[in-house]
Specification:
heterodimer, A: about 450 residues, alpha+beta, Beta-Lactamase, Heat Shock Protein 90, five-stranded antiparallel sheet, five-stranded mixed sheet, B: Rossmann fold, four-stranded antiparallel sheet, globular
Chain lengths: ~450, ~220
């Protein structure tokens, strides 16, 4: 799993760092270059001053007029040095003391040379030129100790790094904030999807963000098309059931007529037909079970149970069954209405078949699950049979004729909803008690936004 | 007993009609929802056997329409739709009983008998009235422990009267509940059958109300 935020932050930090380093190196080089240019220009102008200071003295020959040179050249180790050669006679600035400016080998007249040298650990910028004065070649070399430039450059670099670092942090904070803002609509959608899944809403609301809007539209479309597909396949199954059952009824009746007329094959045909009927009924009912596939479902149990109880009272009118409902109004079923009704219908039908007069229904809901308990005051099931029934999902109603699906449908629905089913002895009513627990959300993670 | 059978299947409908007629019911067959709805409003039927998947108008809509018009005719839904939701819908729409296809004729007959009895507030499982006990299997009546055999028409006539003891039943009413649409009938034949019945079960059980019709039941 990669995070968009982390990726954007990483990209941003990387690009900013590269830019910063380039800028940092660039400014160092540029400032140094500028300072050297400035120093070289001054050295060049000093070279002309020096040239003017060199003249021919009648008597002692060529000399250097100290008065015409700057006083910094008089001070020893001042950092400003020169040496001048007229033919082979050398004049050195007093500041040089014992040192000499290293010279390059050969030089043409008018050729300017600027070099950076290392003089015992100190950087010297050396300017060399060769002039012609009164027919003599005069070589001039000036040098300046530029350690001060390096020192201030180093200082500046540290300053730059400090300010840059602070700025980088500020930028990063701003960036995180901007990305958070940008992703906030994505977060909102995530929250809404969780709501969709838990059944609070049936469709995602429209969003303002251009990039997310198609996503929301697609999800809504998917939800809708899934709903429609389920509806369609259910209708198709219903139609198939209807279409195939009526001919089967006619066949059954023809078989009955055959048996009545004394044909012995009739019995075998009847058996096969009843097998076919059983298989068909089971598969069709199974196919109808939707499972918790669709989001946005919230079926309030009380209303459905009341209808079911009315129906069962009508079916088992002779028994005058007393149903005790203990269902809170807010308890809801996290799935398809048909599945709830099928599950409870079969549970209550089983209970109604065996009960003497009392059936109790409890529906409770907590944060994680929905609990449905149906108990009756019938003969119940022996403990060893309870085990068998739960393990193999055998039919509870095998001995009572009828639609005969009972337990297999119940366990199929429970399986679809990833729930559990427990059969036990009812302490209050004395008969069988069936406890069904269904998780409210199949994926709890998504809800935690 | 006159039954309205609403079933669109071309094989099952006529076949079921024949089977029910064999058990002494006068049966009219409606093959679509519109016809079934109109026939059900005629107040001549004692029971409706209603298929839900009818063309033109679904059985549930037909049933809801009747119930909204306060038509309380007993309705037995006979359908291929066996899901509990569909059962609940059927009963919520006002059905009195619900039988899923495929079914056995015996089961249908048992349910129909139970429903007819319930509609006439009779609690006992055997149709008994005024010292008479009707045996639906042999289509005969037991009077003072002795079995008295009846012809088909006599059986139909007596059964209807026993379902409605103490009520004045006009000749027209009797004819309507004894015969289906396809049978030639004449209300005058009722007199002849009443005469025959009086001979078999005793004249005191069927009294003539002049100008109104007949009343079945022991004098009180």
């Amino acid at each position: 799993m990669r995070s968009i935020q982390a990726r954007l932050n990483f990209g941003f930090v990387l690009v900013t760092l590269i830019l910063f380093v380039v800028l940092w190196l660039g400014q160092g080089w540029f400032l140094r270059q500028m300072a050297y240019d400035f120093v070289s220009a001054r050295l060049a102008s000093d070279a002309y001053t020096l040239l003017r200071a060199v003249d021919m003295d009648i008597g002692s020959g060529w000399r250097l007029d100290q008065d015409k040179t700057s006083s910094v050249y008089e001070q020893p180790m001042s950092g400003h040095y020169f040496q001048v050669a007229v033919d082979d006679k050398w004049f050195f600035s007093r500041s040089l003391w014992d040192a000499k400016i290293p010279l390059s080998d050969h030089q043409d007249v008018g050729e300017e040379r600027i070099r950076l040298l290392d003089m015992n650990g100190a950087p010297w910028l050396v300017y060399e030129n060769k002039f012609m004065k009164q027919g003599r070649a005069i070589r001039v070399a000036l040098a300046e100790d530029v350690s001060f430039i390096e020192a201030s450059l180093a200082q500046l670099t540290w300053l730059f790094a400090g300010v840059g670092g602070v700025l980088l942090l500020v930028l990063l904070a701003v960036q995180v904030w901007v990305i958070r803002q940008g992703l906030s609509s994505l977060k909102a959608v995530r929250h809404e999807i969780a709501q969709l899944k838990s059944g609070h809403i049936r469709q995602l609301p429209a969003v303002e963000t251009k990039e997310i809007e198609p996503l929301v539209t697609e999800i809504n479309y998917l939800v809708q098309s899934m709903e429609m597909r389920l509806q369609r396949s259910r209708n198709a199954v219903g139609n198939l059931a209807h279409a195939s059952k009526t001919p089967l009824t006619v066949i059954d009746r023809q078989i009955e007529a055959l048996i009545e007329a004394g044909y012995s094959q009739g019995k075998d045909m009847q058996e096969q037909s009843s097998r076919l009927r059983g298989m068909m009924e089971r598969e069709l009912t199974r196919a109808r079970i939707a499972g918790a596939a669709l989001p946005g479902q919230r079926i309030y149990i009380q209303e459905e149970l009341e209808k079911l109880v009315r129906t069962l009272k009508a079916i088992y009118r002779e028994k005058a069954i007393n149903f005790q409902l203990d269902v809170s109004a807010t308890t809801y079923f996290p799935g398809e209405r048909d599945d709830l009704v099928e599950l409870m219908g079969n549970l209550l039908d089983n209970a109604s078949k065996w009960t003497k007069s009392q059936i109790s229904i409890v529906a409770r809901m907590d944060d994680e699950s929905l609990e449905l308990i149906v108990a009756d005051d019938g003969p119940g099931v022996a403990p060893e049979d309870l085990e068998r029934l739960m393990n193999r999902g055998e039919r509870l109603d095998e001995e009572t004729s009828g639609h005969g699906l009972g337990m297999s449908i119940i366990s199929e629905i429970i399986r679809q909803y990833q729930g559990t089913c427990k059969l036990s002895h009812s302490a209050t009513l004395g008969g069988l008690q069936v406890q069904v627990i269904l998780p409210r959300q199949l994926d709890m993670d998504l809800a935690e936004v | 007993m006159r039954i309205l059978l609403a079933e669109d299947d071309p094989a099952l409908g006529p076949e079921l009609k024949t089977a029910l007629a064999k058990h002494g019911y006068a049966v009219d067959l409606a093959v679509n929802g519109i016809d079934a709805q109109a026939l059900g409003e005629e107040d001549i039927y004692d029971l409706v056997v209603l298929d839900l998947g009818l063309p033109d108008k679904s059985g549930l809509d037909v049933l809801r329409h009747w119930r909204s018009k306060k038509n309380n005719i007993p309705v037995l839904i006979l359908t291929a739709r066996s899901a509990w939701q569909e059962r609940v819908d059927g009963f919520e729409a006002g059905a009195d009983d619900y039988l899923c296809k495929p079914f056995h004729t015996e089961e249908l007959l048992v349910r129909m008998t139970a429903l007819l009895r319930r509609a006439n507030q009779q609690i006992s499982s055997q149709l008994e009235s005024s010292g008479l006990s009707l045996d639906e299997n042999s289509q005969s009546v037991i009077k003072d422990g002795a079995e008295v055999s009846l012809t088909g028409t006599e059986y139909r006539l007596l059964r209807y009267m026993m379902h409605n003891p103490g009520r004045v039943l006009s000749k027209l009413q009797l004819v309507e509940h004894m015969y289906d649409d396809g049978t030639e009938n004449d209300s005058n034949v009722v007199e002849a059958y009443i005469k025959m019945l009086r001979k078999k079960i005793g004249a005191e059980l069927i009294k003539t109300k002049r100008g109104q019709g007949y009343v079945f039941g022991e004098p009180t």
